[in-house]
Amino acid sequence: MEANRAQIALLAIVGYMLLCVGVGLWSLGRTKSTKDFFVAGRRLGVVVTAFAIFSTTMSGFGFVGGPGLVYSMGTSSIWILSTIVSSNIIVLALVAKRLRMVAELRGCVSLPAVAAARYDSRSVQAWVAVVILLGVLGYLATQILAMSFVLQSVLAAAGVFQAPSLGLCVAISCTVLIFYSVTGGIVASVYTDVVQGAIMIVAAVLVFLTVIGTVDGGMAEISRIVARDDRAAGGPWGTLGMIGALSWFFVFGLGVAGQPHIVTKFMMLKRLGELRYVIPLSVLAYTTTALLWIGIGFAMRALVISGAHPPLAAPDAASADFLQAVAHPILAGVVFAALLAAIMSTADAFLNIGAAAVMHDLPNAIRGRSLRNELAWARIVTALLAIAAALVALYSGDLVALLGAFGWGTFAAGLVPVIGIGLNWARANAAAANVAIASSIIVNFGLRLGGVRLPYGIDHGAAALLVSLVLFLSISFLSRPAASRIPRDIEDVMRI
Amino acid sequence: MALLLALGAILLAMLVAAVIAGAGRGGPAPHPEYGPMLQGIDGGTLGAPLWAGYAAGIATIGMMWLMMRIGMRPGHWIHRVITGWTAAYILIFIFLMQSFGGYASGTTGTFLGFATPTAWLVYGIGFAPWIPLLALTLSFENAYAGPEAEARFREILAESGAASRPDA
Questions:
Q1: DSSP characters for A302-330?
Q2: Does the model's ipTM exceed the 0.90 cut?
Q3: pTM
Q4: Inter-chain touch A219–B114, beta carbons under 8 Å
Q5: Which residues of chain A have a CB within 8 Å of the CB of B2?
Q6: What DSSP element (H or E) covers B102?
Q7: Which of B68, B99, B115 faces A93 most closely, judged by CB atoms?
Q8: Based on C-alpha coordinates, what's the Rg of chain B?
Q9: Contact B134, A78 (CB under 8 A)
């Protein structure tokens, strides 16, 4: 079996891709309107919603980028994982209930449409659509890059190609992704999330058990090896440093309420009362799969330091190399399929919300009405967005996780004040919302494109969130209360 | 919201002050032997003063506390649970910082697989929020959204004629 390790992994991946094509075709018959395409007809139950949220959150960022971050920086990214529970309480408190209610009340199929309803403003709808589009490109690029890294590793090991280029792997990944997303919309994504989520949980536990058995003395010895080589990497801040790590704690802890791929899932829920179990179930699943993030990253760092494994060519190769070199061949095959599963469902969710922003919200904001034949346009725009993100993935030159953190920061800074606070605070007004989003884009993109390094490695998204939050609250406080025009029905919902 | 603004303004002022002072220019360096792997500075502070870590961490937890309470029914005991938990959470963060002080000066100990201050992070900062989450799950109908909320929402739907509107 050991001799066929690469072939088993390839078989699992090909099998999974065929499953995606099949699910896409199955979902095609169940997607008859934009409401089906974007919010799954608003008829999801507890388990499907919980798994959809956790699978979408975990994604290539968690399965490929996470171990890469631990390999590269030591413990720094545990600050991201440490917010899993607290951030989900915040998302429940701030947005879940009100978003679900406003979506049903106004028949909203997207987050910008909810913002338009809340602020009674088409300009806010346009700004929210723009920030979603920008964040989607960064985050989608993360997913495509992660998928391509996995595919490249498996194809090379199986000897299918001599040295498959990243470009070829991006092309293959993108083709399957486009077919899956264009045919099935969000329906394909959420229903496969249940199976994918279950695979991810089992795989994460088995991988962590493998990690513990990799070094005599288990996790404690792995920690000692890492800390002996570099005390910072084994300490609580990792190599990113105290303030940088705390900036991740800030932006990931408070920023989840602005993540459209997560919060739009609440718009798909059948009944409000089901929220009670959605968050705990989702958090439990996410916490379990985080074992893979921590386990593989630390194990690979320790194995390389102790000379048991050659240094990695890139941090993002940590997962693929661990599976190819250390894990049992069948487990490796299952995890490779789980990796693709996580990536595919997240990419589909991003394509979905990005397509909604482009073909539903921007036309509505600019022209005051939707496009004709929205469903067909949704499919066309989905394909175009995937291609654009593939180009970003190929030419941005960033690590998977850093692109993911950039996307997260963009959404957090742009949308936490406007959606999270705005749905709960009657005094918030459209002018404050527009300024908050514009400032978040200027700060986040300005710092990044200008190559600015903030003191102590502070995350750009954290700085952008601080600026947008302070501006949003200040402008709303300084405006006359009458400046906040809230439609009567929305105000009633905000009082519940 | 005023308190949220105050805490956000404090963090923003700290960031602006650090930028103006030109502080924190040092960063992790590539590992001398293992390529893209990085090595830290000063056990992980990158030269930042410890008080800045205390201030940033406690302000962030304070903002979490404020955001968790929004959306809960006013006057319900869940607010007291969240407040009590926040106080305990700040203590856990302080224990982590204290433990890091020892770690940075060379003390080495492990707890359940991690260096002691890292264990505070993994098992304390990471798992302690399960307490308010479980409390919220148990009190969901009274504290957040029960049959009364659902009924009121159905009334609003009926009054607005939402069923007859096209999707937005």
A1: HHHHTTSSPPPSSGGGHHHHHHHHTS-HH
A2: yes
A3: 0.89
A4: yes
A5: 477
A6: helix B78-104
A7: B68
A8: 22
A9: no
